[in-house]
Structure prediction request, 113 residues.
Amino acid sequence: MVMFLMVLCMSVFGLAITALAFGAATRGLPVEPEAPLAATVDERLAAVPEHFFVRDAAPQAAPVPRLVPNIPAEVFLAQIERHIRLEHAAAESFLMAPSPESLHGRTVSPLVH
Prediction:
């Protein structure tokens, strides 16, 4: 019970110190009513030139960058299929004769992961 009261008193003391620090940090700041704030925001928006936000232009789709130009997709598919076949063969050879060398050996495939 004594420990609970001590924790409770320390928590209240910490809350009081935090409230005092917050009050000291915010002391002296000007407090403005909401109506003038809304008026100044509207004046700032009215001062922005109309061409700043292009509202009339339709959004244009960005061109899709190609990493390797002028190479058909079939070439990439063939490379991926070859890589899969090599990895499958390596897995089968490991299952036939498991060893640390075959587990940690380098792959023959040019697509290194």
Remarks:
- The CA atoms of residues 94 and 104 lie 10 Å apart.
- The helical segments are 2-26, 34-47, 73-96, 100-103.
- The two ends are 61 Å apart (CA to CA).
- Residues 67-113 form one domain.
